[in-house]
Structures are given as structure tokens and as C-alpha cells.
Specification:
Layout: H1 3-15, H2 28-39, H3 57-73, H4 77-81, E1 84-86, E2 89-91, H5 104-109, E3 124-128, H6 134-142, E4 147-152, H7 155-167, E5 174-178, E6 190-195, H8 202-207, H9 210-213, H10 228-236, E7 241-250, H11 255-261, E8 268-272, E9 275-283
Parallel strand pairs: 3-4, 3-6, 4-5, 6-7
Antiparallel strand pairs: 1-2, 7-9, 8-9
């Protein structure tokens, strides 16, 4: 069987199943391409030139086995392949961390324009609730002069973050900290805090597709209205920002609730090239004391 035919067949099998997309792809065809290319070690950039390649029976069998796991067990493909992609970078992931998909990555890609006058002048960054460490690592890869801390309450997540830090040889520039929000961050201040905290409300947690239920609940659930962690972050973060510092918080579909709960704060909603109303920014001077 040729690669083109294999991708088409896997895509059709995914299409005819009841799996849910959203952990790196949004449709059956892209999911099939990801599964096949990763298993065969074919770079995405060259897959079109390999479409007439003949695939061995052994490789077809392996791909079919992984496809069956994906369909029958509703495990996100990122966990099956132990990889996730964000802004062209590959990150190791497993069931200990949420699968990278933060829209804050758009801001990094866009140099935080127009919210930060010159991101290259930023010297210190905290990626809070870091999971796999992907956002902090992207900051370090994009801006060479920045020192980054990545922090998470889950020691298992910190272990995964350390794998990714080592993968990109960033041990001298990115430090992983096991901490419950700011509790273990001592005598430090940052020019910039990025956080994609848990923000799924109680009702939505009950309705999540099976694939999302495979992710750590600790990385998703945040109380009745989805803002438990966000409240704490906003209350505590001022002491950890340098003068002129900013915090960017991703909050999913909770804008209306954020506007209601924090109506007395000077909040700026941040658009990116792919989204609106999912991220807000607060300047240090506008945070509560």
C-alpha cells in the first residue's frame, strides 16, 4: 500500500468513528496525517513528496494498532505518540500533563504586539501552571536574553517539563519549580507572567468529551465557575511583578464571568491572529494589593 492510500484509509476510519478532535488537530484527515507521519518518521514538511512511497506490511500493522487504540479507547493521539506540536516545535507529553494548545503561543509568535512595546527588553518571565513547560520554553527559544521559570503544582508535570527543557538544551535558561502558585517562589520578581490556569467550570467538566477526561483533572477543573485559580492568581501576582510588569491570563470561554467577577479591575482583552476574548492582560499597577 502506498502512503497516500494509507492516509486516506486511516482518515476514513477516523471519520466514521465517534472520536473527538481538538488535541492538536481538528479533523480526521489531519489526525491521520499526524499518526502516519509520526509513526513512519516522515517530517510534515516533506509528506507530500512521499505520497507514492510503498509502506511495509509491518508498518501498516503498527499504524493500524495505534489507530485502534485511538478509536476504541478515546485516548488523544498526543498521548499515544508521546508528542505534541505547538508553533512548529515538538514537545514530549504523556498523561501527566495537559496537551499543549494554549493560545498564548500566538502572542509569543506575534511578539506580544501591541501589548509590550519591546519584548526583547524583557529579562525575566514566569510560566505559571506550566504543564509540559511549552510556553516558557517557547519564550526561551524565541527570545535569547530571557531567563524563564516554569512552575506547576503537579510534581509529575514538572518532571515532564524538565524532559522538554533538556530536549531543547535550555537547562541554563529555563528553571522548573514545583509550587502551589507562588508559594514556593521566593524573593523573585518577573517582568512578565504568563499563565494558562485550569478554567473549566463544574458543569462543563461533567460534559467533557472522553478525550478531555483522559487529561489530568487538576489541569482543567477550577471550581463552580471556573475561576477559582484565576482569583488566587490575580490576588497574589502583584508582589511577583517588577514595576511596569504585566500578567497575561488565558481563560477560555469565560469572558462574561471574568468581566462580572473582576469588574472593578482595569482588564484588557487581548486578540490574537486566531482568537478573541480568550486572554486578558493586567498591568502590575492595576492589580489588587
Amino acid at each position: 500500500m502506498r502512503l497516500r492510500a494509507l492516509i486516506d484509509r486511516i482518515s476514513m476510519d477516523f471519520e466514521n468513528s465517534d472520536i473527538f478532535f481538538g488535541h492538536g488537530t481538528f479533523n480526521a484527515f489531519d489526525e491521520a496525517v499526524w499518526l502516519v507521519s509520526s509513526t513512519l518518521n516522515i517530517p510534515f514538511s516533506s509528506i507530500n513528496s512521499d505520497l507514492e512511497r510503498v509502506i511495509t506490511d509491518a508498518d501498516i500493522k503498527k499504524i493500524d494498532q495505534l489507530k485502534s487504540i485511538r478509536i476504541n479507547q478515546k485516548i488523544p493521539l498526543a498521548y499515544i505518540l508521546k508528542e505534541a506540536w505547538l508553533k512548529g516545535y515538538n514537545f514530549y507529553v504523556d498523561e501527566r500533563v495537559i496537551i499543549p494548545r494554549s493560545i498564548i503561543a500566538d502572542l509569543i509568535d506575534e511578539d506580544f504586539y501591541p501589548w509590550i512595546e519591546s519584548i526583547t527588553r524583557t529579562e525575566s518571565v514566569l510560566d505559571l501552571c506550566c504543564g509540559s513547560g511549552c510556553l516558557g520554553i517557547l519564550m526561551s527559544l524565541n527570545y535569547k536574553n530571557i531567563q524563564v521559570d516554569v512552575a506547576d503544582i503537579s510534581d509529575s508535570a514538572i518532571a515532564v517539563a524538565k524532559i522538554n527543557i533538556k530536549k531543547y538544551n535550555l537547562e541554563q535558561k529555563v528553571t522548573a519549580i514545583h509550587t502551589d502558585l507562588f508559594s514556593n517562589i521566593k524573593n523573585k520578581k518577573y517582568d512578565l507572567i504568563l499563565t494558562n490556569p485550569p478554567y473549566v467550570n463544574a458543569k462543563s467538566m461533567q460534559d467533557l468529551p472522553a478525550e478531555y477526561q483522559k487529561e489530568p483533572k487538576l489541569a482543567l477543573a477550577s471550581g463552580e465557575d471556573g475561576l477559582d485559580l484565576t482569583r488566587k492568581i490575580i490576588t497574589e501576582s502583584k508582589s511577583y511583578l517588577n514595576d511596569g510588569g504585566k500578567i497575561f491570563i488565558e481563560i477560555g470561554h469565560n469572558r462574561d464571568r471574568v468581566d462580572e467577577v473582576f469588574k472593578d479591575l482595569n482588564i484588557w482583552w487581548v486578540d490574537t491572529g486566531s482568537s478573541s476574548d480568550y486572554i486578558f492582560m493586567i498591568n502590575k499597577e492595576d492589580l489588587p494589593n
